[in-house]
Design goal:
244 residues; two-stranded antiparallel sheet; single chain; five-stranded parallel beta sheet; alpha/beta; 9 strands
Length: 244
């Protein structure tokens, strides 16, 4: 085969593969080049709303920096940034990642989180990223940690160091979604341990997760990180469950 023709075929290879195996949008099922088509991305993920800077709950008053709950009972973390609400149909994306092992969605979530970060130039970037850890039993059952899958591409996009094992579960905890609100704090008390080999004194830690609902998990992890010397904790979470 002539060298020029061989080179041309190698250049066309990826394009021919994409044409032969087109991707399907994770929401509408339409043909697209990536995990999500442009119309679905614009309609469901292109909107921004005023949010509490500490917990990311939606705010009715854009001039108010914090919600009433954070003013009355401040959490251990200092800020939370999210890319979307955990509501239909975006919730299906998270379910596909978490329970359907559609890991190709994790880079999409990271990209959308990076875009949300870029829209907040006043927000200082963390010095390092820490994914919310799963317990050994749940990790073995699922086969992956969705928070880590999002954190890997997010760390590359932000140019921030990733410490995959900075935090670990000290004990297995029950799923927070299956517990009554009054049981959630007790379920997570002293649930995390931090790798003492990673210096945290005076540092800003970014905690990565897929969804924030009550914020109890992130609060307990932030408190643990601060007891180990972290000066500031910022949550970088793909979706926020709106209050009911």
């Amino acid at each position: 085969m002539p060298e020029r023709l061989s080179l041309r075929l190698r250049q066309l290879g990826p394009a021919l593969l994409r044409a032969a195996l087109p991707a399907a949008c994770a929401l509408c099922g339409g043909r697209c080049a990536g995990a999500l088509c442009a119309p679905c991305r614009a309609e469901y993920l292109g909107l921004r709303r005023p949010r509490c800077r500490q917990c990311a709950n939606p705010l009715a008053d854009a001039a108010a920096p914090l919600c009433g709950r954070c003013l009355a009972d401040p959490p251990a973390f200092d800020a939370t940034l999210v890319a979307a609400d955990y509501a239909a149909p975006v919730d299906q994306l998270l379910l596909q990642l978490k329970f359907g092992a559609r890991l190709a969605l994790a880079p999409l979530f990271a990209q959308l989180l990076r875009d949300a970060v870029l829209e907040r130039p006043e927000l200082a970037l963390p010095a390092l990223l820490c994914p919310v850890p799963l317990g050994p039993a749940r990790l073995a059952e699922r086969g992956f940690n969705q928070a880590l899958e999002i954190a890997r591409p997010l760390a590359r996009a932000l140019g921030v160091a990733l410490h995959p094992t900075l935090a670990a579960r000290a004990r297995e905890t029950r799923a927070q979604t299956r517990l009554a609100p009054r049981e959630r704090a007790a379920n997570l008390r002293l649930a995390f341990v931090v790798d003492a080999a990673v210096p945290l004194r005076g540092r800003h830690v970014g905690v990565v997760d897929d969804v924030i609902t009550s914020g109890r998990t992130l609060d307990e992890l932030a408190a643990t990180l601060k007891r180990c010397g972290a000066a500031r904790v910022t949550n970088l979470v793909f979706a926020r469950t709106p209050p009911h």
